[in-house]
Amino acid sequence: STFGGFLVTFMASSINIALPLIEEEFHVSAVTLSWISLAYTLMAGATLLPTGRASDMLGRIRFYAFGMALFTVISFASAFAPSAGALLALRAIHGVALAISWSTAAALVVEAFPARSRGRALGLNIAGIYLGLTLGPVLGGLIIHNLGWRSLFLVLGGLGLVNLGVQLWKLSGIHASRPQPGRFDVVGSLAYAGGLVAILLGFSLLPGVTGVVLVVVGVAGLAGFVWWEDRVSDPLLEVDLFRRNRVFAYSNAAAFINYAATFAMIFLLSLYLQYNRGLNAQTAGYTLVAGTFVQSVMSPVAGRLADRVQARYLASVGMAIYALGLFALSFVSITTPYWYIIAMTCVLGVGFALFASPNNYIVMASLEPRLLTMGSATLAAMRLAGQSMSMGLATLVLAIQVGGRGIEPADYPQVLTGVRTSFLIFTCLCALGVGASLVGPKRREQPGA
C-alpha cells in the first residue's frame, strides 16, 4: 500500500515536467496540455466513493490488486500513445486506478495491522504518498531529460509490475472482511461524480463566469447527492454517520481545512521564488524540496506517536505549527534570506506530518469494520476537494491582484502582495482547523487502548 501510494503520487507530480516535451511532439494547445495533467485528478475525484463501494462489494484486497494492475497496464499503454487524445483518455483511466488505490488503502492498512501499531502503519502509508510528491519532479525530471517523456511511463509500468507482484504475495495472508452484498448506487455515483467534477473544474477557472457557474452547479449536484444518499437503501456514503459520529465528521472537516490551507503553498512559493527572486524553475524546485522531504520522514514518527498518546492533540499541534509557518511566510519580501524560506518549509513539513497521520488514525479508529472503505474514500475525497479549494483560493487572490492577463515584470510587486495575502488567508483557515481537529476520541475509546 505504501509503495502503491508512492507510485500514484509520483505519477501525479512528475507528469508536469513532461508536458513541454509532449506539446513539442503532438503540437497541442495549452488547454489540451493542461487537461493531460488535470484529467488524472478529476477522474480520481469523480470515482472515489463509487470505487470505494465497489471495493466493499467485490472484496478490498481483490479490488485493490485490480487497481494496481490497471495502473500498470495503463502506464505501459501511455508510453506508446499515438496522439494527445489517446494520452488524454489513458490519463483519465489512470485516474480511476488512483481512486481505487486511495479509496481502499487506509482500510487495508487498518485490517492488516493490530490496533496498537495502526498509527505507525498509517504514518508509513502517508510517508509513501508524500515521498512520491517530493521525488516526482526530481527523479521524473532526470528520467525525462535523459530518456524522453515516454520513458517515464515505462519506468512506472515496470515499478507497477514489481508492486503488483509484492501485493499478490503479501496481501494473500491478510484476513480481510468478506465482500458486502447489495445494490450499486448508480444514481448517487452519477450525482457525486458530476457535482465533484464541476466543482474541481470550476475552481480551476475562477474568477471567470464559467468557473462561478460550474462551482454553483457542482454544489447543487453534491447537495442532491447528499439528499439522495440519505434515502437510498444501499448508499455510497452513510450521511447519517456525520450526524451521529462527531469524531468522524469533525476529523474529516479538519482534513478538508488542512488541505485547503496547505496544498497551494508550493505553488505560491514557486511563483515568489521565480518572479520575485529571479530563480529558474529547477533551482526553485530544489529550494522547496526540503520541506516535503521532512514531511515524508516525520510522518511515520507522527504515526508511531499516535499509537501512544491522544491522536487529537498531535493533530491539533500539527495544525497549529502549520499556522505559525504560514504566518511567518506571509512576511516574505524580495530580500528575505533563502535559509529562512527553507527553514519555514521544514517547519511546515513537521506540522503537516504531525497532523496528517494522527488525523487519519482518528477517522479510521472511529469506524466499525464494515465502514472502513467508506471512511478511507471519504478521507481521500476531502483531500482532493481541499486541494482544489486551496488552488482556487490562491488563483482567485492572484487574479484580483494581477488581473486575468499574463504576468509581466511590472506585475511582480502585485504577485508578492498576492502571495502574502494568500498565506494570511491560509493561516486563518489553519486556526479554524485546530479547533476541528481537537474533537477526537479519548484514549480509553481508541482501539487497543
What does this structure look like?
80% of the residues lie in helices and 0% in strands. The protein contains 16 helices and no strands.
The SS-based structural class is mainly alpha
Number of E-state strands? 0
| Overall 3D shape | globular
Figure out the total of helices. 16
As a whole number of angstroms, the C-alpha radius of gyration is 21 Å
The helix/strand series, from N terminus to C terminus, equals HHHHHHHHHHHHHHHH
How would a crystallographer describe the biggest sheet? none
Poorly predicted sequence stretches spanning 5 or more consecutive residues: 442-449
Distance between the termini: 25 Å
Q: Portion of residues in helices?
A: over 70%
Work out the strand percent.
under 5%
Q: Averaged pLDDT, please?
A: 80
Q: Main traits of this protein?
A:
mainly alpha; disordered C terminus; 449 residues
Q: What is this entry, summarized?
A:
The protein is an all-alpha fold and 449 residues long.
What is the fold's blueprint, element by element?
Blueprint: H1 2-26, H2 30-58, H3 60-78, H4 84-112, H5 118-147, H6 149-170, H7 186-205, H8 209-229, H9 240-244, H10 246-262, H11 265-276, H12 281-306, H13 311-329, H14 338-365, H15 372-402, H16 412-437
Helix pairs in contact: 1-2, 1-4, 1-5, 1-6, 2-3, 2-4, 2-7, 2-15, 3-4, 3-6, 4-5, 4-15, 5-6, 5-12, 5-14, 7-8, 7-15, 10-14, 10-15, 10-16, 11-12, 11-16, 12-14, 13-14, 13-16, 15-16
